[in-house]
Amino acid sequence: MLLESSNAVGLRLSLVSLLVGGLTALNTVTMDVVERTREFGTLRALGARPAFLRALVLTESLLLALLGGAAGVLLGLVGAWGVDLYTQNLAGIDAAAVTPRLAVLSVGVSLLLGLLAGLLPARAAGRLTVSGALRRP
Questions:
Q1: Number of CB atoms found within 10 A of residue 126's CB
Q2: How far is CA 110 from the centre of its chain?
């Protein structure tokens, strides 16, 4: 009973973390597009197609997600090492582990969130007109 309750709390906490992370990534990519509107307008004036701008924003979003996922795995490894060091001294057991499967899953979820967070801003970047983008302050 107690273990089931603990698992349910852990699942809910993970879902909230995913939601917050996804919204943070969406905000970051959206602000990046807003700040670079004139740059995108210049690219369009030089002949860049809307599909190029969409691909550019999505690629940047995925690269940020990949770097964030890799940093998260490294922090997880350091955290697991610290927990294991503590529990070895306390009870003689290893209580935490970051398995290769968990690391790959974590980076995969990070990439999925990055892709989803980049879709809307990429669409907005692709819809920019040259005159509208260059008119912005």
A1: 19
A2: 5
